[in-house]
Amino acid sequence: MSWRFISLPPQDGYHMVTSFVATADYVTKGGKNTLMVFYAKGPFVNVGVNQEVWLEVDLDFTRKMGIPVVRRDLGGGTVVITPGEHDYFVVIREEDAPRDSGSLYKKYLTPVVDVLREYGLDAQLREQDIVVNGKKISGNGAMTHGKSVVIAGNILLSLDIELMSKSIKVPSEKFRDKMAKNMAEWLTSMERELGKVPSRDEINKKLKVTYENELGATFEESSLTPDEIETWDKLAEEKKAEEWIFYKDNRHPDLRTERCVKISSSVALCHVDYKSRKMLRITAKFTHDELDEVSISGDFFVMNPPDFLDRLEDYLKGTKVKDITTKIREIFTNSKPVLFGFNADDLIHAFDEILSKPEVIEVTSP
């Protein structure tokens, strides 16, 4: 079995987040499994598909600095992408992907772990991330597209903690300082670990060899097809549209609060951040004893069906408070979503937390 190995020149943020879509179309139509490597021309803020920009990004800072905000098709959290990382995309046929996410990541990220170990680093796969001495050096995510599966990730070559911390929305400058300190404690890079940054060509060669050895396949150096390039450019242009970037924000324009507040005797707005395996951010509007509207966002991954989050929000709209748990279990049972980061029980617990808030109790109680 042979794969394509494609090394591309540096790209802008909009091309960075859409390259794998064009290639996933190619693979879906019967093309070869593909490993692509490249990196960013300049910094940009990369927001997960399931996140709301206003909750995650310091838009005043990014606009002032001319740093684009780019919303990707993959889940996960908001990250600041800089030329200091080396990105890879593994695009495979659906039948070559293990069903459960843990096995998927293990199979296709072990070669990256092996490359880092070749540099003498004690790299370990921890769920979908790769850590060295407990610090993350590689973040990864996965999604389905057509009849293909995409694993996207990076190797941190160097870090710009100041830029990263200033681009992320925080409640106060004191919190920002703490966040920067925390980033320095839980992130690392090849430069920090080795005292130097290996060349990208060297890393690419090692990636190619380790993937060949791990998968028992031949990786042929190749290039994108004309159709892929045409699709890629078109998709990158579409990603510049504010309708896409702020899709989650615009879906619930009236649910903009980071606390719980009683609007009137019959209406309450409430926001909670609930930590499951990933972060669940829920903002809900209650009118009398009904869940009038809800926004569910966070750094989790929805692999299948891709529109499950929208379906979930729509399904819960108008639900009586006493029936929320039942409705959540119904849609999870009927849709059988493939998620990474939370499950039905986590969502139920998050709603229990919201419903326990005094502002919500006052509105929803008989």
TrEMBL record:
Q: Which InterPro entries match?
A: aa-tRNA-synth_II/BPL/LPL, BPL_LPL_catalytic, Octanoyltrans_LipM/LipL
Give the source's domain of life in one word: Archaea
Going by the UniProt record, its keywords in alphabetical order are: Ligase
A single GO molecular function term of this UniProt record: ligase activity
Enumerate the spans annotated as BPL/LPL catalytic domain: 30-219
Which one Pfam family would you cite for this protein? LplA-B_cat
* Protein name from the UniProt record: Ligase
The record lists the lineage as: Archaea, Thermoproteota, Thermoprotei, Sulfolobales, Sulfolobaceae
